[in-house]
Amino acid sequence: MQVAILSKNLDLIRSVNQVGLTLQYSTEAYGDDMPLIRALRSKSFSMVIVDAALQYNRHSMLCQWRASHGCKVPLLVVGTFSSTYAMQAALDSDAADIVTGPVNLDELSVRAGRVLHQSPYPTQAGMVCIGRYALDRRNCRVLLDDEVIALTAREYQLAAVLLANPGVNFSREQLSRIVWSSTREVAERSLEQYIYKLRKKLYLSPETGVVLRTLYAQGYRIEATADVAGAGPDEMAGAAACAPPSRDATPATP
């Protein structure tokens, strides 16, 4: 078995390695979210251990990536939490369990062993439904009224991150790192183009029950909405152009 560790704390890494001798797993340590995410794309891990000092919660880049990609690898948050709120936030995310610090090796061994033998969360795979849309993470596709919308690989990645996290504010930097693994200016310029294409291709509008809001000087947010109340000028201006076609009509090419 192989376990990934997200931490720069050498003491924590040593503790996890020591427990690995008992539970018979090897470890790979990562100091930042992006190298770990790249590893999760290509390697098979039995568990991910995250340093509690990194304040893992549903807004964390790793958590958002796991949600949008249906990652089934169980996750354990270990270490000293900044507050009881941080502990609750970790448990309210996709973490399977937490171990509060200072780390006790016996407790870490018991909890890590329990997590290693857990079944993957059923909510991490399959369908995510919002408005008239369905995000099929198993087959990497987006459906509107049960009809598949043709998207490129990066368009799907961006749509998956947003649709899987309704109501969550994403900065341009976060989205650029998740989709392009870069925060360079060229990635942010590409992001604006992809946001425009998604609004057109997905017919995002009040009529479909989902709006992609622009948070000026901040980023973007997907939001389920029953009407146009509170919609910004970008959403209102594009509502007519993005209205979904009837089932008998052929969608216009954006």
Describe this structure in words.
- The chain is an alpha/beta fold and 254 residues long.
- It folds into two domains: 2-123, Rossmann fold, CATH 3.40.50.2300; 127-239, Winged helix-like DNA-binding domain superfamily/Winged helix DNA-binding domain (Arc Repressor Mutant, subunit A, Orthogonal Bundle), CATH 1.10.10.10.
- Helices cover 39% and strands 21% of the residues.
- The chain is built from nine helices and twelve strands.
- Strands 2-1-3-4-5 form a five-stranded parallel sheet, sandwiched between helices.
- α1 crosses α5 (105-116) and α6 crosses α7.
- The longest helix has 17 residues, at 185-201.
- It starts with a strand and ends in a 15-residue tail after the last helix.
Give the helices and strands, then pairings.
Elements: E1 2-6, H1 10-23, E2 26-30, H2 33-42, E3 47-51, H3 61-69, E4 75-79, H4 84-92, E5 97-100, H5 105-116, E6 127-130, E7 133-136, E8 141-144, E9 147-149, H6 153-163, E10 170-171, H7 172-180, H8 185-201, E11 210-215, E12 219-224, H9 233-239
Strand content: 15-25%
The number of E-state strands comes to 12
Structural class: alpha/beta
Number of domains: 2
Question: For the terminal residues, how far apart are their CA atoms?
Answer: 47 Å
Strand order of the largest sheet: 2-1-3-4-5
Average predicted local confidence, pLDDT: 81
Order of helices and strands: EHEHEHEHEHEEEEHEHHEEH
Assign the CATH topology of the largest domain.
Answer: Rossmann fold
Give the biggest sheet: 5 strands, parallel
